[in-house]
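chain below, 433 aa
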Amino acid sequence: MKNILQILALLSVLMLNAQKDVLITRGEVLNRVMEQNTSLKIAEKGIISAEGDYRQTNAVLLPNISVSHTGLATNNPLMAFGVKLNQQIVTQADFNPDLLNNPRQIEDYATRFEIQQPLLNFDGFYQRKAAKAKLNATEYQSERTRDYLTMEVEKAYMQLQLAYKTVEVLEKAKETAMENKRLADNSFKQGYLQRSDVLAVEVRATEIENQLQYAKSNIKNASNYLSVMMNDSTYNIWTPADTLQVFTDNFSMIKVSENRKDILAMESSKEAYYQIYKSDKMSFLPKLNAFGTYELHDEKVFRGGASGYLFGAELRWDILNGTKRFGKAHKSKAEFEKAKLELELYRSESQVELNKARRMLQDTKNNLELTALALEQSREAFRIRSNRFAQGLEKTTDLLSAETQYARKQLEYYFTIFQHNSAVAYITYLTKE
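prediction:
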């Protein structure tokens, strides 16, 4: 058991060492996501599936052609005489009553070519339109998935930037804490500080060290999420090529566009339900189909010494099929009405979401100004107290309070930038056509 634990520990160390810090830009992440993301591949398979459904409706327009080869042997009087007729080998002697009533066994090998051509199939035409609308909806939804992933890339990349900024702030705070600890140790040796003051400085340094470890773990978490989005199995530790900065925003659109891909997808879905409803209504009409066959018969396999053909047309009208068609039409009408209501509701909810996002953006802009001002004030307060502490004119608790406040305000400022940029990315997603 001990050896197994040692091996597992060694493998863990090797896996950690195998992870590399790799520089990557936002554009590189987006390109790799668009090329390799699993969700997009699933959406593409959905399009292919919808294309398959649409191609199946070609049967409404194109003929159905089949070929078969059948072999049989019989001494049934009626069948035996019919086989001779098909093989065109009937003679005067075959009309002998004894031969007609008690024929010998005869073999027949028939090759049959059959064609069926739809001419008028009204419900099939509307089923084809429904399949096309479904295909359009699937394509629009796939494009909307791309828009969503673009937003997710922005947020994930910013989370990585924020994680690195957090580590940067805490590392500087750690350097400051170590310097304060050095000053506190010197002051303690000179009798200017009590042991409790030195311990307070050491506790603050330990707190920062713990926060720094969590921040470094967040870098790995953000990197792993990017790897999942890019379908990258190496799970490298990604390093953003640029730093976290405030996005500019200039949104003039105050309403959700009717050309937004998800709305167009629901429009197409509603159209599909409408065409299905029309198809069910048209199923009450008759259908006209042409048909034809060409047959080769012989007593030997694959020879075809005799041939014959047949062609014609069929007008078929199923006047009453119980109440099945009535119920089906009733159901498809209800589904169409439901799709219309869902589309109206989705439009309203999307507009509410856009209004909410715009208010959120305005709140983050206001908060950004406040946190920037608070950061500047805490920086100046910490600078003054640090200078006074170095001269022995400031209490240790006041210095630690100022240092803690300054670090916290830095983190709040960068987190507010992240919130602001996330709001910009979200509104871009909501207003994208």
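Residues 245 and 383 are 25 Å apart (CA to CA). The first strand starts at residue 21 and ends at 24.
thats it, cya
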